[in-house]
Amino acid sequence: MPPSPPSYPIRAVAKITGLSLDTLRAWERRYKAVVPDRSHRGRQYGTAHIERLLLLGRLVEKGHAIGGIASLNDVDLQRLLSDQPHRDEQRIPPDAPAIISPILAAIEKFDMTAASEEINRLATTLAPRDVIYQVMVPLMNEVGVRWHDGRLAIAQQHLASQMLRDLLGSMIRLFRPSRSRVRMVFATPAGESHEFGIQAASALASMAGIEPVYLGTNLPAAEITQAAQRTAAQVIVLGITLPSESTAAEVGAVAAAMPETTELWLGGGGASIDVSASGRSAVRLDDLPAFELQCRRLERLVA
């Protein structure tokens, strides 16, 4: 007799999805977003229910009203999510938000002391996750836009990158769990030197109780897979800004040589690289919220 599919009580679902108990009850009662099973133990949610709630949660975070999307089927929800202008929506208009304006002004003056002091001040007043989403990501996007437009020099871009790199390194060390059932290797393949994405993801992983094994940038495939084997990592996360034939070959080599039990997650501009020729598959990460969504899925699998 096959085993019964797993089911979860509402409190476990709240922890997995990040939705409050009140939100879960309201979405069920008012909008029939999901219809969990009922038993003597109360509401029981299956895996399909949780996947749907995670989808709905991400769309609500992106500005959709729950009343307008609750009746859509899962395929339509996935399509709506994939149609979101991930990259464009993160671009900041010329008048940057007030929260990062003092930092940008200091960077323009090459005043790294003032910029660092302002970032450190925000890091002590905001929640750690908000520091990443409200300060670091908008700042890096805006610095990139201003460099591209010629309003910032390469040196100023490098100074900003180093400043955020130092802070993210501190956050990874601060929140690294002492014990974790989940371990992830973070790296960029040979030829790829941009590390902000994998550093930010490493910090978010630490906050979620996942142990990051941060290898850094520009690593040969053999080094990455060897690290995954020696650390028994469940996931290899690769950041790829500019995909090329050589990068695709390196990613394919990682997929072919990594342990059978290890997943491959790809983020950045090269997230769509096809590794099917290796006989393996890869999870595409369009943004940091997508990374956090996959972290929740993985945590359920190892729970």
Short description:
Helices cover 55% and strands 13% of the residues. With 303 residues, the protein is an alpha/beta fold. Helix 9 runs antiparallel to helix 10 (154-175).
Biggest β-sheet description? 5 strands, parallel
Structural class: alpha/beta
Classify the helix fraction into a percent range: 55-70%
Strand content: 5-15%
Query: What's the count of strands?
Result: 8
Radius of gyration: 21 Å
Q: Please state how the strands of the largest beta sheet are arranged side by side.
A: 5-4-6-7-8
Mean pLDDT: 85
Distance between the termini: 24 Å
CATH superfamily of the largest domain: Cobalamin-binding domain
Rough outline: globular
**What's the architecture of the largest domain, going by CATH?**
3-Layer(aba) Sandwich
Characterize the structure shown.
The protein has 303 residues and is an alpha/beta fold. It folds into 3 domains: 7-84, Orthogonal Bundle (Multidrug-efflux Transporter Regulator, Chain: A, Domain 2), CATH 1.10.1660.10; 88-174, Methionine synthase domain (Methyltransferase, Methionine Synthase (B12-binding Domains), Chain A, domain 1); 176-302, Rossmann fold, CATH 3.40.50. The protein contains 14 helices and 8 strands. It has helices at 10-17, 21-31, 47-61, 66-69, 74-82, 86-89, 101-108, 112-125, 128-148, 154-175, 196-207, 221-231, 245-257, 288-302; strands at 7-8, 37-39, 42-46, 183-189, 211-219, 235-239, 263-267, 283-285. The strands form 2 sheets. The protein has a 5-stranded parallel beta sheet, with helices on both faces. Helix 7 (101-108) packs antiparallel against helix 8 (112-125) and helix 10 runs parallel beside helix 11. The longest helix has 22 residues, at 154-175. It is globular, with a radius of gyration of 21 Å.
